[in-house]
């Protein structure tokens, strides 16, 4: 199981008691068959970007607000990130 799957399961569990909580998983698997490999969010083995709010941008320009998870030996680091016009601001 990838850490993306662990995060997905925790988000689903949280939503059971907070039904208004929404998140947006990856929409396309791409050429690397990311869904089959367990990558449910934007990212790779080093991070997962969980989109909470998304606004359509121009081609290849993502606008959104989300949580960035990075695996650690004893869990995850997490911070918020705002993406706009190809830039990002992390908190």
Description:
The protein has 91 residues and is of the alpha+beta class. It has one domain. It is 16% helix and 37% strand. The chain contains one helix and five strands. A five-stranded antiparallel sheet has the order 1-2-3-4-5, covered by helices on one side. A hairpin with a 7-residue loop joins β2 and β3. It is globular. The N and C termini lie far apart (28 Å).
Short description:
The model has no long low-confidence stretch (mean pLDDT 83). The protein has one domain.
- Determine the number of helices (DSSP H or I, runs of at least 4 residues): 1
How much helix, percentage-wise, in residues? Answer: 10-25%
Structural class: alpha+beta
Largest sheet: 5 strands, antiparallel
| Total tally of structural domains | 1
What share of the residues does DSSP label as strand, in percent?
35-45%
Over all CA atoms, what is the radius of gyration?
Answer: 13 Å
Give the low-confidence spans: none
Order of helices and strands: HEEEEE
N-to-C CA distance: 28 Å
Overall pLDDT score: 83
Which outline best applies? globular
**What's the oligomerization state?**
single chain
Total strand segments: 5
Strand order of the largest sheet: 1-2-3-4-5
